[in-house]
Prior knowledge:
75% of the residues lie in helices and 3% in strands. It is built from 22 helices and 4 strands. Helix 2 crosses helix 7, helix 10 runs antiparallel to helix 19 and helix 11 runs antiparallel to helix 20. 56% of the residues are buried.
Amino acid sequence: MDQFNQWIETIDGWVWGIPLIVLIMACGIWLTIRVGALQIRHLGKALKFMVKNEEDGEGEVTSFGALCTALSATIGTGNIVGVATALVAGGPGALFWMEIAALLGMATKYAEGFLAIKYRTVDKNGQYLGGPFYYIEKGMGARWKWLAKLFACFGVLAGLLGIGTITQINGITSAANNFFDPNGEHVLFHLFGQDYTIATVVAGLFVTLFVALVVIGGLKRISSVSQIVVPFMAVAYFVFALILIICNITKVPAAVVTVVQGAFHPRAVTGGVVGSMFVAMQNGVARGIFSNEAGLGSAPIAAAAAQTHEPVRQGLVSMTGTFIDTIVICTLTGLSIVLTGAWQVDGLEGVQVTTYAFQNGLPFPHVVSSFVLMMCLVFFAFTTILGWDYYSERCLEYLTGGNMKKVMVFRWIYILAVFIGPYMTVSAVWTIADIFNGLMALPNMIALFALNGVVVYETKKFFEAGKHKK
């Protein structure tokens, strides 16, 4: 197992090295310049469009439903476990780079949402299909279809083996175990050098069952569940994290200084544990992308099903996902961890870091704080599993020419991956997820650079015509 971990960590270092980080950040900067910092100037309008569905729009689900489907995939363990992992590995400065990546990523997510509607298609069953594989093939030309298939292949693998299943169920079962059996006293069996408790096994079985019940129902069931669960869980987590920060408001200025200083001078903050600005940047950008998925090309797959006529409008709605996911929720998590000093506590890993922050920052008994965080993480991760099943299925549909028999087989394999997910180690799980995230980003980035002219031209026409005032 140690040799396997070393092998995948080496691959992760190649994938998430300087070139990809520079590419993702450069794409965000370039698009921000090209659309005139649209993500800042029109954020208010975007938030309005988010809750105001377009009249007579064509599609399978409302714009809000499509956003909730996308948010169901993005608001997950990355917001709780991923932020903690980034801060432990990269120091508090990782949070700063996570925010920068998110701000630039809003422009990227806008372009993705725009292109999803611009180049979407309707199949013989009336399904609206879109995403990077379609805007690569239809926007860049048929000779680039190999690149579209490459993205779809990475998308299937990312959903099945990385971000969609294993990381999410691992986060759920870890949280359940930390709450119900923190000392690991009720071990059921031993596997791969790890003890697995009754809490871990039972939580895994329950989640697998509920995932199966929803996933078999397809997009509309996933969307209907997401529209109920996503707003509820996001507001609940926001309220408790805000309470934590308010109760420690005097520590916030120092925490902000620590974050900014750690972004540029990690040694001064971490005592030499994090040796360079690049380590903080790499962890911040990687975990930020894992959380909000800007640049990965996953969210436009959901956006393509939105009931709308106007690509610009859906692009604006899509970019609010990154704002909610990272700039709001991840910021609250990161500040909670920094101002309680949770990132400095030896021996804590993953969700344990955020649990420590909630236990020591909230004015409630530890058992209450732990329960709140556990329930938030369970809902976050559960909906992410659902959202990524939808993404993976759409990728597989593209690869197989719409062969629904193969898609149905995939659904059961996906459910099986959720079932076995709790028995993978945390470090290996996150590393595998990082690798597939990076591989997905590459074809999508090529398409965004190639088609940015279309985005800029039609965006300019939209605002010049005053359509944003309607």
